[in-house]
Amino acid sequence: METQRRGKSTCVFGEMPFIASTASVVGPREGQGPLGTGFDVVYKDTLAGESSWEKSESRMIRQAVDIALAKVSLTDDDVDFLLAGDLLNQITASGFMGRDHDIPFLGLYGACSTMMEGLGLGGALVAGGFARKIVATASSHHDTAERQYRYPSEYGYQRSPTSQWTVTGAGAALVSNEGPGPRIESFTAGRIQDHGIIDPNDMGSAMAPAFVDTLSRHLQDMERTPKDYDLILSGDLGRIGSIVTRHLLKEKGIDVTGVHQDAGLLIYEMTPDICSGASGCGCIATVFAAKVWKEINSGKLGRVLLVATGALHSPTTCQQNESIPSIAHAVSVVGVSN
Amino acid sequence: MTLVSAFLVGGLLCALAQLILDTTKANPAILMVSAVSLGAVLSGLGLYAPLVKLGGAGATIPLTGFGHALVTGMVEDARQIGLFGILTGGFRATSSALMVAVVFGYLMAVLFNPKG
Amino acid sequence: MARATVREAETYNMLVKGFHPPRKVARNFVKAYMVGGSICVVGQVILDYFVRRDIPFVQASSMTSSSMVFLGALLTGLGVYDEIGRFAGMGSALPITGFANSIVSPAMEFKREGFVLGVAARMFQIAGPVIVYGSLASVIVSILKVFVF
User: Fold this and answer.
1) What does the DSSP 8-state code read for residue A91?
2) Does chain A have fewer CB atoms within 10 Å around its N or its C terminus?
3) Is the pTM of this model over 0.90?
4) Nearest CA to CA, how far is B80 from chain C (Å)?
5) What domains appear along chain A, each with residue ranges and CATH number?
6) Is B17 near chain C, with CB under 8 Å?
7) Of A306, A296, A217, which is closest to residue A259 (Cα–Cα)?
8) Mean pLDDT, to the nearest integer, of C69-90?
9) Closest-approach residue (CA) in chain C for A161
10) 3-class DSSP state of A186
């Protein structure tokens, strides 16, 4: 059997799977941002008509899956795997959403890297012939994240200038063995990095080494340079993380100027309380669904590398003064003409 | 004590706490704990009572004043009834504030929902 | 290397610190001063009111603190105190209104987990240390003051 790997750590798909459709469901703040009109559903408040924020997050991720299927007139019966994850303990937003879909469920935890973990794994399942269609989805919610990781919402505290604002939103992508649509070309899974950052309010700096490790391995395996891509989209490095990353890349002789953009800096109007930018699984998931996938589909972008980064800490580890390990998963997607 | 001195003393205590927050590794929790402890120590040294005379609410409203109230109550009871007074005096002095916090905290939870 | 050595971690932390935006120390100082001072002025107005009605100072002071706790609780319930806190930092966290906010906000937040295991159990999540360390410090200080010195 022919191997579908290149270099040391990248999976390259012979029969490239298609990302046939995407969907994004977001909260009010995201809807008011620069990508506002691109989202499929924008809720007027973060409760979305539910009785708790956890239920609201579950509702959003369920809707994202429903819309992604509806756009190509498919139902649960057509889908072989549902790969889903979020930031909550025991990934309950995804798990509880899975009750409403009779699809074999694979729960994932990669923090903010979850969407690319799902797209990469899902792409491999389809490319390997183990699935005809899969849905990859990830969500996050500002209020569920605050009450789990930080403070009650009515607590008056000052945000650190390096902190990031968790996105309230869910993005989903349907990956299929038949087109049309942009195609998943390769998947480079991340290796967990830990360079000793202990401040959970500076996740950008904690995640930068993971981004650098995955990107450099991917480029080496594929024998490419950043210029071979029209866009290298990072998940949510934020302002600080992006600056640190570019510095670290330069030390390795990799220059991403003109090609690199960060989803965490695209989704909001950068007001002072956003501090360093957006974060959360929903960040790159919704930005990909609402903007990047559409641009690849329309031919505006030819080849894109999506590198989602995640910080793998918990409130407990931070209280125990542990540093923050991070991971970054990369998926390259090519347009119809490539 | 006047409105002006209350503003100046109270504002200064808060601003100094903010300065420490911005220039050291301290976080708000550590600062609040340090403030109440510092108030207790200064009270024991007899340094906080003059500050109250000068700043009035500017000295009693910040958490340092809470530490001062605890010590004042304990010392008073201990001087009257002996060692056991240490245990009775603290919350005797501050009980009303704590009661209000618990009772009205509960009430607010019943009446209002967090807005996010 | 996936896991940095202690020295590599130190170097990285220093590098990262260099890229952090400078803290607006002066501006935060002024904001904390303004808000903290104003809250204390409100307290002073209430204190003067009680003193004028011939209530002994210690009791008046106690009643003032209770009133300010109520005020902090109300502003938290109305969803206003978090906005003040974002602006003022320690200017709203240090006064006793901030103490109230730290009790009322978890009480409201965890209502969805029920009134016993949510509201009641988690009410002192943030304020607990103040009560514990306040008690410890004052006990030690008082024993020293009354029985040692």
Assistant:
1) G
2) N
3) yes
4) 11
5) 12-176 (3.40.47.40), 185-334 (3.40.47.40)
6) yes
7) A306
8) 95
9) C21
10) strand
